[in-house]
Design goal:
By secondary structure, the chain is mainly alpha-helical. The protein is built from 23 helices and 4 strands. The protein binds zinc ion.
Length: 475
């Protein structure tokens, strides 16, 4: 299977995941995962594990899934899935890095395409349908309308399971990549310990990572001996590492609340946070509890309590820029939810995706659509696949009466999530509007806006034709 064919298969699966209600674009957790993922990619490149062809052709995108189980998985074409449950279950970023490094190596070693080529004579479109059906069945085994039954899913799962050799390869190379990327190698071993413990405690299927990644005693032994051979004795935790742990605890708290929307779970998280005393120095557990409690209070619409909890975090975050940034974002999020966007202070620096999008949400809520248009026009030029940015831009343009531009931005957000049909529908609507002679809100720029829309319509039509042709060939 060529890299391009694998990418097409991955795109097909990804476009369905984007439309799944459990797909979650959370910019804060997204940035956090990227901060762990990018050093792994760089280390894999430097070691020659990731060649130029795959680097360029594959998507290299991490998709966050609203699911409490501890799981991460590699999909064809360089898409990775990470469950919220994994982020909230791991103790530190090193453990998260060890899982991501392992999945990264499944992709770079082309394990997926080897499985497909070796064991499956099915056509790619059927394979995509089966992988999606398997994911749906795993999500809700009782669903009567699941695309594929549990037994079928299991059989596909078995066919698509990585071999023991592949698992060992992903462990071995992944271990080297994470070490080169500067992570504490202890993370690999402690992750194994955690999973092994979980499998002993918990056999109700809530740790599917164990099923797709057979955890044999042999693999654990190898991980530990690798650690003894290659790693120096673990250092005492430096202040910087200590603060990184606090940031991790806050992100784990976020993942926990986003994955547990029930009122009981939210009340529990809130009560936990209320027991944390105000202090200049917080433990990992306390920082995580305060962060989770703030979000939980917001979701329970207890905005006063959310404010007082986030203020407790602010005191402790003063010593660390990393922590301070995470707390500043949470604080603004709290203000937006409480309807105080207009009174809230602007972010001190708008230098990350989460900051760009959150500040834009605040500006929209505060009636400053022009600021949003200015900021996001620049942003989407360098990040054309950012569907959420396009959506916010469309809203800002709509508020400014720029109907034509708003429709186009909406169409671009569909393109970013690979839904070309929906994008074309919107662009056609924009063309109809132009021909109707009504005011499109473009003023003197009407001619330019019109020609952009015509060009994009032609390009999307072309993409749709290619896609249809490709599907015929794949069948
Ligand atoms: Zn694996």
């Amino acid at each position: 299977m060529t890299a391009s064919a694998e990418r097409r298969l991955g795109d097909r699966i990804a476009s369905s995941i984007y439309r799944d209600p459990d797909y979650l674009d959370d910019p804060v957790l997204g940035d956090y995962l990227q901060s762990i993922w990018q050093p792994l990619m760089a280390a894999a490149r430097a070691r020659g594990e990731l060649g130029a062809e795959l680097d360029e052709r594959f998507a290299w995108e991490i998709m966050l899934i609203r699911n409490r189980t501890v799981n991460a998985f590699a999909l064809p074409g360089g898409y990775l899935g990470v469950h919220l449950g994994l982020i909230s279950a791991v103790e530190n970023r090193d453990e998260l890095a060890s899982v991501l490094a392992h999945e990264l190596i499944h992709v770079t070693q082309r394990h997926i395409s080897r499985l497909i080529t070796k064991q499956n004579q099915q056509m790619p479109w059927l394979l995509a349908a089966m992988i999606l059906g398997m994911m749906a069945a795993g999500k809700n085994p009782d669903a009567a309308n699941a695309a594929i039954t549990g037994a079928q899913a299991l059989s596909v799962q078995n066919q698509l399971n990585f071999s023991r050799d592949m698992e060992r390869e992903a462990d071995r190379i992944g271990f080297g990549v994470m070490a080169d990327a500067g992570y504490d190698r202890q993370g690999f071993a402690s992750m194994f310990d955690k999973l092994q413990q979980a499998s002993r405690l918990n056999d109700n299927g809530s740790y599917p990572y164990l099923r797709s990644h057979p955890l044999t005693t042999e693999r654990i032994g190898e991980a530990k001996s690798r650690l003894q051979l290659e790693a120096p004795a673990p250092l005492a935790v430096s202040p910087e590492a200590g603060r990184a742990r606090l940031v991790h605890a806050m992100m784990a708290g976020r993942a926990h609340v986003l994955g547990n929307a029930g009122v009981e779970a939210l009340r529990f998280a809130l009560a936990e946070a209320q027991r944390v005393p105000a202090a200049a120095v917080l433990t990992q557990r306390q920082a995580g509890a305060l962060y989770a409690g703030t979000l939980a209070a917001t979701r329970l619409r207890d905005h006063g309590e959310a404010r007082s909890l986030v203020d407790k975090l602010k005191t402790a975050a003063a010593a660390s820029p990393l922590m301070a940034q995470a707390v500043e974002l949470l604080s603004l999020e709290t203000d937006i939810a409480a309807g105080r966007a207009a009174q809230a202070a602007r972010l001190s620096s708008v230098n990350s995706r989460a900051a760009v999008l959150l500040q834009s949400q605040a500006d929209l809520a505060a009636g400053r659509p022009q600021d949003v248009s200015d900021r996001l026009q620049t942003w989407v030029t360098s990040h054309p696949k950012d569907a959420m940015a396009w959506q916010l831009l469309a809203t800002a343009q709509g508020q400014q009466g720029q109907t034509l531009r708003a429709i186009r931005s909406d169409a671009e957000s569909r393109v970013a999530q690979l839904d070309y049909g929906a994008a074309r529908d919107r662009l056609k609507a924009a063309q109809d509007l132009m021909r109707s002679g009504r005011d499109t809100g473009s003023g003197a720029g009407a001619h330019i806006d019109g020609s952009i829309i015509d060009t994009r319509t032609r390009e999307i039509d072309q993409l749709l034709r290619q896609q249809a042709l490709q599907e015929k060939l794949d069948r």
